[in-house]
């Protein structure tokens, strides 16, 4: 077959994708399982490659093959080019191996000429449609194949409409269109100095050349370059006969799902229109009828269709979304694909298909898109009302869910509004730890700045609260309590609605649909747990979050951020005293105030976790995050500390940093003030001993030291920590098991992981910071340009959302390889925000992590992603 | 020799360092080249290791060996333990393979007991000295070997002084000390329930045990842990007979250099004291005499000494610094080492030694510490006046030199002061680009914040101007124009002096010494250039710097920071308009204003460089660095731009970033505003064509795209840049050669260098940012804690000063390895501040860079370091 460059759909199959392209292989597959697909053939990618080798000439042997296939096609379907009654018309479409949506060219209704246009009028009984199609074909062919600007034709159309005083194209009648066709042909003649080709064979050759040429148009080249698709693959060309659903009352068109895509129930679901084309269904001018009614009008066609739906479900082993056309009583299948469905339906269908014996549990697990589970865990806006909703801005989909409320610009105001019984949305430039109570009280959070791992986003996800972050379409003035979009102004108290799953902000209050956990969910998640080998823990900082996490199936806590415990109103005063102390004694006395509180926090957390592992990260953020900003707060603190306002303000300002993310934080604090970590470790260990002594299940704390970049930092801090632990053991005359490890989040730590692993029992990858430092992107500032990066195709994904495998992922792999060299028993996890993102979870599985840790609300998602990863890349 | 654990000095040599320790090997070496070194022996590190294996017991065979050596020693020097007239006294000192200064124990005057103390009194004719030595020995032995707290003895001494109503120890007479000795022995008896050991053998055994034990004292263990010295090496013990220079008029002590350490002139230089001990010379109570006068008093000793100085110079092939003692007319050499010297002397001596045939050129090159050349290039404070100077603070030695001036807190004020003819020092929290003109006008710069690569430091080094940065000892209030140290307040106009080579800040105006480039310097640098294989370029942003760089021997420009061109008063208005433009048209019109100015800049730079390569970095810093801060400046700009103040202020604030180092800068700007780089590239290429057309030597611009982290960024920006270059080529109908490469400064770029090298012709390592992001340290904030890191031994060096080889260096190695895989011709350089730091230059040589680039004033230093690296690690 070396010299075969053209395949009829009968000759291909889905495995021939590299030769026939994606579309061609799929058309062949459907043809071969006996579906009535409109006939056609595919000119291969190999032909395209040779076309370029031949200096863009269609060589004779290829033309011969095409003509042979054309004759076969005419014979098969009983239509022929330029027929006055029932002419053959074809579409010519590109189809490469990798999908390049919209990058290359398509020509429809090829074959129309002065003769066949009459045939089309006759066969459809619609002269206006026929001439309108001819007009459009001339324009499309001239533009795509011959390079004549569209505007040459469109201006004539506009001129005619103006002369006739009409506005819509549809108001032109058949006679108008006939005139227009003649004018269009004149344009062609004037532009190219030759007549518009009446010979369909010539039309076809020129169109095939045009599709081949479009492989190398500038936008396709840029697309391939950015997506690393080779320029040498070439594109296939699909030539397929057109069918028409508007040939009279025995024709029609429709769409159907083999099961209910909203609920998953097993019954045919769809609609059709008699004497119509696909675009009529979409345009919504006529109201389609329910698919079951087709049975009454065309019982044989209906029965055939139902049979086909079963064939398709059995062949593709999934619910199908099928487009069909009936031309003069004959059914054609134009397309079938796995049907889009709600999460609820997805789970129901997958579970049913297992019970029906069509697929096994592993296959069922692969059928549900992990992120779709968000629909089951959070409210969504009602589809119906969304159509009329007014979009005012779009930001990052930072934390899923849908919510509405009145806008407030200060955390205090939100708290007060809530106390008044209002639903409130907190709107800020960016949130800071001081806003925590307002965030708790708010229905949702909207920020103008900050990325997917900004403070607002991280905290909101942890709370399972809807959040749109980094919304650069809005300008927020917290001072004047005004939010501006490009053309509107919103004041305090105005209603808006947030969709945290899409990032869209709507005007006003929109109706919401509450999630329902269907009966199949439990069974499905059991299978997920059976298949999955990687552990799934939660990021949880308090007993409430821990309980929530357990409810969602968490197997432990992978990240307890102790600083969140510091922000509570009742404690922050002690924290501030500790930070602003000028002597060791002052600092120790402030820490003594905090010790019992932290111990109690840990006790309650351990109690909630019932013996499951708990990883506690010691204090991480820069100290000035805890400090008061407003003069009045500084004044209050100065009084409490018995120092002058000026002096305290000086100290507060002295702690400000140019780049706090790269500043005095994490283990660097512990090098300067070892007593802070010693207090925290004492609380961790004392609480664990209390738990043991009170007869609860033993807790095995995993103490995590953040921001280690150098082995000597870890040695130094670990020495301090161990001293304190041993002191507690002596004092209490009791011991507990514990581990000491590090958050692996600094690029240098990854590069020197062999050294660091000699002192660490575990690594927990902090991929937020690893991404920040690996790329050099501030998570709080990158929102400004990352959208543009994704839009321009420079990044496929925001690396704060999905682990950048080639860079940040590579650093993780290096860290694992090096770390295991010196410590083969190293325990490995991830506690960055990526731990709940399906593609990242897959990557974590592939590189051998023992667990991922994520926000409680993402646990089912992470579990499903982990199970899918095991199916795709089994560890054992 | 397997069972030999004790070596007399005659039996060792310098190559036996791992067995004898550093000190023992050196004592042996001196002994063996015939120097009169006080006799002694070394107990090996192997003995120490076995001592621990034997559960800390000195086994019999070892004791036998020690006794044999002791008898040999007594015989050799004609003294014996417990002798009533001329007793043997010894010192017992630790000496490990790697120097661990002050970490282990030393005991002096061992052998003193009730009998030998009389012998010492007799032989020195100084009873007071003998009993004072005995008293001290009891205390030292009891403390070091037996663990009796020193305070037990010191309190008795204090008591006696109080009773006698005297203040100084020296006021006690011999009788007092005899009483004290008895009391000390009682303490020993009471504490340990046994008599103070009178047997010197017993004293020695206990002391050897004590030194062995001190190997594992906590501070030694911590020191080894931090410096990665194995715990298993053990320490040697050196037992050496004591000699006394205070035995009468035929005794004495002194120090001499074989050449003049200030000028390098070849004559003996030193001083001595008759009837004195080493500490008398140091204490400065008596004034020593010039060494040449010794000839008159003890001609034979003097001749012997002169002969020895020649022996030593010939043996060590370098100028020696020699300590000697004369005991009863006999000369002893206590120590010799390569003498410390000024840079001027260092070069003179090295060049002379070559001419004398003692060493070759490569050896001469190795003799001068590259950083010492700073002395030749910048003024220093006069040694004599420094003694009385008052130190008020210490910061980072950010840019070398010494200067004095009146302090001013605002750039404007400095400019005005200079106009009045004053010498002014700019004192700021931290400088910003707005301060440039003040920095130019200032004698020196002092900042309270910021590290070695902060704005102040980098700019000052570029200008060769003295700067002390990150001086956390001072608090600066720019508003009230006050600088505070712990206990003093300085107002505007007060004089201070800065030493940029040490980081010390002095009160008042201090006399300075201007540098002199001696006659040997040129010859020396010629040899450096002969040996060196790595290129040395300069970081220079304008023709003046370029000329300075060429004068110092630069071979090209490795980094021209185009943004520095943007800051000039006359241009910044256009830059601001460009940044704050809201439409593409506005931005382009502002860029059109900048184009001719930039083109002229490049033209002049190229002209100055006379055909040498010039690497131009496209715009790098975050745009808001260029923006006005003060309301009045914003107002002025608003008027010029014809927009409202409020609106403009909004825009300015909107550009602020939380972490500007990780923000919207470098190539990220070019993704958002491609027209900026297009203007810059147009200026670069047009200027190069102008140069060519005017008949100057062709310039081959190397266009450097900063902050690339991902291959797609480079592809995108390079496409834009190439389009503009080709446009210029077409317009001018002429071409020039050029390269396009990237600054390699983002960790992710290093990790994915294989991808990036497919589009880059060169990598220039930006190790400032690579260090910032690799460690996660903000260069502007890390000053706060990095000092502490170095003090606590966590880091040996500030990684912003010297490349961190294990981490940042490893990233560079990875980048080179990966990059060469896909682009074997990749050109490699460095343009970070490390490019002028000798150890970093060595590393750059080792990993194969083609060139380093540094501030003009560091070029001789970098060249010398590169030459030394080639000697140590020849590339060919």
Automatic annotation (TrEMBL), chains A, B:
Q: Where does Mg(2+) bind?
A: 745, 769
Task: List keywords of the entry alphabetically.
Answer: ATP-binding, Kinase, Magnesium, Metal-binding, Nucleotide-binding, Pyruvate, Transferase
Check the record and name the InterPro entries matching this protein. Answer: ATP_grasp_subdomain_1, PEP-util_enz_mobile_dom, PEP_util_AS, PEP_util_C, Phosphohistidine_dom_sf, PPDK_AMP/ATP-bd, Pyruvate_phosphate_dikinase, Pyrv/PenolPyrv_kinase-like_dom
What is catalyzed by this enzyme? pyruvate + phosphate + ATP = phosphoenolpyruvate + AMP + diphosphate + H(+)
Report whether Translocase shows up as a keyword of the record. no
What is the organism of origin for this protein? Answer: Tissierella pigra
This protein's name: Pyruvate, phosphate dikinase
The catalytic activity of this protein is classed by the Enzyme Commission as 2.7.9.1
Q: Which Gene3D superfamilies match?
A: 1.20.80.30, ATP-grasp fold, A domain, ATP-grasp fold, B domain, Phosphoenolpyruvate-binding domains, Phosphohistidine domain, Pyruvate Phosphate Dikinase, domain 2
| Domain Pyruvate phosphate dikinase AMP/ATP-binding positions | 57-295, 303-345
Q: Which Pfam families match?
A: PEP-utilizers, PEP-utilizers_C, PPDK_N
Positions annotated to bind substrate = 561, 617, 745, 766-769
Family per record: Belongs to the PEP-utilizing enzyme family.
């Amino acid at each position: 077959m070396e010299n075969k460059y053209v395949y009829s759909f009968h000759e291909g199959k889905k495995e021939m994708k590299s030769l026939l392209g994606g579309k061609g292989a799929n058309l062949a597959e459907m043809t071969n399982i006996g579906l009535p697909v409109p006939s056609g053939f595919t000119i291969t990618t190999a032909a395209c490659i040779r076309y370029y080798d031949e200096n863009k000439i269609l060589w004779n042997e290829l033309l011969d093959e095409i003509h042979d296939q054309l004759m076969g096609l005419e014979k098969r379907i009983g239509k022929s080019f330029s027929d006055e009654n029932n002419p053959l018309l074809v579409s010519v479409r590109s189809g490469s191996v990798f999908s390049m949506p919209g990058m290359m060219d398509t020509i429809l209704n090829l074959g129309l000429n002065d003769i066949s246009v009459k045939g089309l009028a006759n066969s459809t009984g619609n002269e206006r449609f026929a001439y309108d199609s001819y007009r459009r074909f001339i324009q499309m062919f001239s533009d795509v194949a011959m390079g004549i600007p569209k505007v040459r034709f469109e201006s004539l159309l506009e001129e005619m409409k103006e002369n006739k005083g009409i506005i819509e194209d549809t108001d032109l009648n058949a006679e108008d269109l006939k005139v227009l066709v003649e004018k269009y042909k004149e344009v062609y003649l004037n532009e190219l100095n030759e007549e518009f080709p009446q010979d369909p064979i010539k039309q076809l050759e020129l169109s095939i050349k045009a599709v081949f040429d479009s492989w190398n148009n500038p936008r396709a080249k840029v697309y391939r370059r950015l997506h690393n698709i080779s320029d040498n693959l070439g594109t296939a060309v699909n030539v397929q006969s057109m069918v028409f659903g508007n040939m009279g009352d025995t024709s029609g068109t429709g769409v159907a799902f083999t099961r209910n895509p909203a609920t998953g129930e097993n019954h045919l679901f769809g609609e059709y229109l008699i004497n119509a084309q696909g675009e009529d269904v979409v345009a919504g001018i006529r109201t389609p009828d329910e698919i079951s009614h087709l049975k009454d009008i065309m019982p044989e066609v209906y029965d055939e269709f139902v049979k086909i739906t079963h064939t398709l479900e059995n062949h593709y082993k999934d619910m199908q979304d099928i487009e069909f056309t009936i031309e003069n009583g004959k059914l054609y299948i134009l397309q079938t694909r796995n049907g889009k469905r709600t999460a609820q339906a997805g789970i129901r269908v997958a579970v049913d298909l297992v019970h029906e014996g069509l697929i096994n549990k592993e296959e069922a697990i692969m059928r549900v898109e992990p992120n779709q589970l968000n629909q089951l865990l959070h409210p969504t806006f009602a589809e119906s009302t969304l159509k009329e909703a007014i979009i005012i801005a779009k930001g990052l989909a930072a934390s899923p869910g849908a919510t509405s409320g009145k806008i407030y610009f200060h955390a205090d105001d939100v708290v007060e509004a809530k106390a008044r019984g209002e639903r409130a949305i907190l709107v800020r430039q960016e949130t800071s730890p001081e806003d925590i109570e307002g965030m708790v009280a708010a229905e949702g959070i909207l920020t103008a700045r900050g990325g997917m791992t900004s403070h607002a986003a991280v905290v909101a996800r942890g709370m399972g609260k809807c959040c749109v972050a980094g919304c650069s379409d809005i300008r927020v003035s917290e001072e004047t309590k005004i939010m501006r979009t490009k053309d509107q102004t919103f004041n305090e108290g105005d209603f808006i609605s947030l969709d945290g799953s899409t990032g869209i902000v709507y005007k006003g209050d929109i109706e919401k649909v509450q999630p329902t956990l269907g009966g199949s969910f439990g069974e499905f998640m059991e299978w997920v747990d059976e298949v999955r080998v990687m552990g799934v823990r939660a990021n949880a900082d308090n007993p409430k979050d821990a309980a929530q996490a357990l409810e969602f199936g968490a197997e432990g806590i992978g990240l307890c951020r102790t600083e969140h415990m510091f922000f509570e109103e009742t404690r922050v005063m002690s924290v501030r005293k500790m930070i602003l102390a000028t002597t060791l004694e002052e600092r120790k006395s402030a820490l003594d105030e905090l010790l019992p509180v932290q111990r109690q926090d840990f006790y309650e957390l351990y109690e909630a976790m019932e013996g499951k592992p708990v990883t506690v990260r010691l204090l991480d953020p820069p100290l000035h995050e805890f400090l008061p900003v407003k003069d009045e707060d500084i004044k209050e603190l100065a009084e409490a500390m018995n120092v002058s306002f000026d002096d305290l303000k000086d100290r507060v300002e002295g702690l400000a940093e140019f780049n706090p993310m790269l500043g005095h934080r994490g283990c660097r604090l512990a090098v300067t003030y070892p007593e802070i970590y010693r207090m925290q470790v004492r609380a961790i260990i004392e609480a664990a001993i209390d738990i043991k002594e009170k007869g609860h299940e033993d807790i095995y704390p995993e103490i995590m030291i953040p921001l280690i970049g150098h082995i000597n930092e870890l040695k130094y801090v670990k020495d301090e920590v161990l001293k304190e632990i041993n002191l507690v053991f002596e004092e209490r005359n009791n011991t507990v098991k514990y581990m000491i490890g590090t958050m692996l989040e600094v690029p240098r730590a990854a590069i020197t992981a062999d050294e660091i692993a000699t002192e660490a029992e575990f690594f927990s990858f902090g991929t937020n910071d690893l991404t920040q430092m690996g790329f050099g992107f501030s998570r709080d500032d990158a929102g400004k340009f990352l959208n543009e990066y994704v839009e321009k195709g420079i990044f496929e994904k925001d690396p704060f959302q999905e682990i950048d495998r080639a860079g940040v992922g590579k650093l993780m792999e290096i860290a694992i390889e090096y770390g295991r060299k010196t410590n083969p028993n190293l325990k490995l996890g991830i506690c960055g925000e990526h731990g709940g993102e399906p593609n990242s979870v897959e990557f974590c599985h592939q590189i051998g992590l023992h667990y991922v840790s994520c926000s409680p609300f993402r646990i089912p998602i992470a579990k499903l992603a982990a199970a899918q990863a095991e199916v795709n890349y089994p560890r054992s």
